[in-house]
């Protein structure tokens, strides 16, 4: 009996009820978005031969009950957020491929040639959760919307300004007088004129 729900974009926690399928031979939940921990009583699935939970967001320790799966031949827990020591003894000792556990930076054990630094003091590192990832994605969406609004709003505002100026003779005169005054002030500041220049106001026709 096989359950293969891989690559279905499933999310949430793995339901404990799945461990009631005691005659299940293959369980594949890989490449989804599952969070939370591996069900502690997964060892009740005594007939399980293949278990693939890779490429999810599972956290916490690897349940010691996995050692009760005497028929387990293929195991893949890679690329999750699992922490703590790899359980020792019984069935898991027959699975000696380190790639089973790769991609879990806070997982340790003799198979990975990594001593657990928290074995002596009982400390377990804190890792980011799916909620923090969701907040990050929401922030990125807000920033993207801000940049889009700026890109659209600037040319629209500029067009409105030029329309207001060039559809009125009086506004055109005021605009070019202002430009003339600002230009002269800048030229005086940088020393272009040897002495301050008095600018006479004169009416221009455009």
From TrEMBL:
Keyword Glycoprotein: yes
Native organism: Momordica charantia (Bitter gourd)
Compartment(s): Membrane
GO cellular component labels: membrane
Family from the record: Belongs to the RLP family.
Keyword Signal (UniProt): yes
Listed InterPro entries: Leu-rich_rpt (IPR001611), LRR_dom_sf (IPR032675), RLP23-like (IPR046956)
Protein name: Probable inactive leucine-rich repeat receptor-like protein kinase At1g66830
Residue intervals passing through the bilayer: 144-166
Keywords linked to the UniProt accession: Glycoprotein, Leucine-rich repeat, Membrane, Receptor, Repeat, Signal, Transmembrane, Transmembrane helix
């Amino acid at each position: 009996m096989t359950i293969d729900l891989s690559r279905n974009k499933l999310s949430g926690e793995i339901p404990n009820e799945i461990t009631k399928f005691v005659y299940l031979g293959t369980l594949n939940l890989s490449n989804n978005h599952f969070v939370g921990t591996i069900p502690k009583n997964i060892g009740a699935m005594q007939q399980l031969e293949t278990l693939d939970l890779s490429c999810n967001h599972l956290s916490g320790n690897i349940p010691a009950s996995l050692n009760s799966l005497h028929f387990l031949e293929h195991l893949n827990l890679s690329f999750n957020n699992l922490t703590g020591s790899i359980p020792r003894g019984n069935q898991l000792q027959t699975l000696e491929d380190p790639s089973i556990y790769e991609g879990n930076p806070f997982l340790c054990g003799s198979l990975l040639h990594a001593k657990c630094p928290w074995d002596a003091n009982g400390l377990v590192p804190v890792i980011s959760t799916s909620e923090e990832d969701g907040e990050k994605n929401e922030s990125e969406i807000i920033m993207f919307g801000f940049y889009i609004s700026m890109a659209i709003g600037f040319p629209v505002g500029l067009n409105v300004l030029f329309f207001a100026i060039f559809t009125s003779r009086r506004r055109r005169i005021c605009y070019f007088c202002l430009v003339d005054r600002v230009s002269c002030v800048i030229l005086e500041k940088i020393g272009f004129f040897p002495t301050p220049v008095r600018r006479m106001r004169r009416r221009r026709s455009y």
